[in-house]
């Protein structure tokens, strides 16, 4: 019963946050002085054509009617226009791009496998590498190993992603000529080539994010290892591996889970720079193209999608807390 109440409250909170973000996006992009129909109309756009596009998009309606249609489209789908020229957008409808003549939801789903592949592989690398590096630095505190690992972590955090990408392309693509510098092969087509084409983008993203995990893990581990219960565990004669593994690492789980969920959610919404550097046509590239072409419907749709992914990732992290640490469930 307590678990059901906990899950229900978190689900309700996630839905409310998503609705607030959706309403904010609507206010920013549809109620500002700029007319969204003007961008969909293109150039040249006669007054008659502009009026027709406004009726098609429904922006000639009262703002509250537009908001209801906008939110209702996400939940139950939406139809643009009337009669034989009507276009239906299935739920969840994040909008319809008149420039690309496709629903934003379909455009995102087409690009999502690329972004998902990029995020998944990079997350495995930075999760394992960053946490392992942080643990080693903490356990070797004050040594040359500690200084080297932290120095590398600071370098990784400081270096812009595009710079790491360009250096990777220059070194592994052109100088050594051992890795492809771009392109994407679907996993279902050839798993080996899928990984081969993504390994360089994975490494670039892993360096940038893994450095953060290394510093966080080191700091948290040093703090935990100075606690009284660690000294008590050692006083009982427990082996050092048991003290570190059972008592030390357990206290790292929650902060790392939170950070991991935020990072995964953010990258699934589009790793814009990495996708652009390596020519990957993922969700981030879709957003970049939409901004370049002032495709308001796509900008709003991708923004909402990215927000939804982050909210869902945080919801999963919240729900996993009670599994990872039963004390949290008992305190709520």
What's the topology here?
Layout: H1 2-30, H2 36-41, H3 47-57, H4 63-76, E1 78-80, E2 87-89, E3 96-97, E4 102-103, H5 104-139, H6 144-158, H7 161-175, H8 191-225, H9 228-235, H10 240-248, H11 253-268, H12 272-277, H13 283-292, H14 296-324, H15 326-331
Summed up:
The protein has 332 residues and is mainly α. 74% of the residues lie in helices and 3% in strands.
What does this structure look like?
- It is a single chain.
- By secondary structure, the chain is mainly alpha-helical.
- Helices cover 74% and strands 3% of the residues.
- The chain has 15 helices and 4 strands.
- It has helices at 2-30, 36-41, 47-57, 63-76, 104-139, 144-158, 161-175, 191-225, 228-235, 240-248, 253-268, 272-277, 283-292, 296-324, 326-331; strands at 78-80, 87-89, 96-97, 102-103.
- Strands 1-2 form a two-stranded antiparallel sheet. A two-stranded antiparallel ribbon has the order 3-4.
- A hairpin with a 4-residue loop joins β3 (96-97) and β4 (102-103).
- α6 (144-158) packs across α8 (191-225).
- The longest helix has 36 residues, at 104-139.
- The two termini are 12 Å apart.
- The model has no long low-confidence stretch (mean pLDDT 84).
